[in-house]
Amino acid sequence: MFGRKKEEPSAQDVVDQAHAAAQESGAGKGTPTPKRKDQEAARKRPLVPTDRKASKEAERAAIQDQRQKMRQALDTGDEKYLPLRDKGPQKRYARDYVDARFSLGEYLMFGALLFVVISLIIPSSSEQLSYVLIGFWVMFLAVFVDVFILSRKLRKRLLEKFGEVERGTVWYGSMRSLQFRKLRLPKPLVKRGEFPS
Question: Which of 61, 124, 155, 159 is least surrounded by Cβ atoms within 10 Å, i.e. has the fewest?
């Protein structure tokens, strides 16, 4: 009662027929304009695919391919497939600037881990633990000062090169400086001392 008739051609068939007819007749001027209903039928696609299993497989393969390209872009620095948080010339400049300098923040996690191990070994009532705690806070303060200096220099460099600083770029560079160099993503593309121009 309701639904399409079995003999009605599908949208893909209409497109294929129109394409074949255009190639045979030498498409261009001199051929009649296709009727609106034929063009609309050619553009129609079903809302729900007829073969759901194949559709899910194709979608899964497309997502897997996109993830693979993104993973590869994180290694090579290819702008096209980078995640949105890493895209743009200012973010690239910030990455290169941070990767070119030595940062104390790279070693903050190792210092924190060392502090935890020492605090487990030394009894809490010991006077030596207070020295370890003071040493950790001195390191933390030094990292804070280093990040502050980095953010000021990075902001100045970005203003000189681009005329303005995009929102979040300085924070992006500062957080990157707190990561261990070998674990940074996207991977560093410059050696230490190779500051971007």
Answer: 124
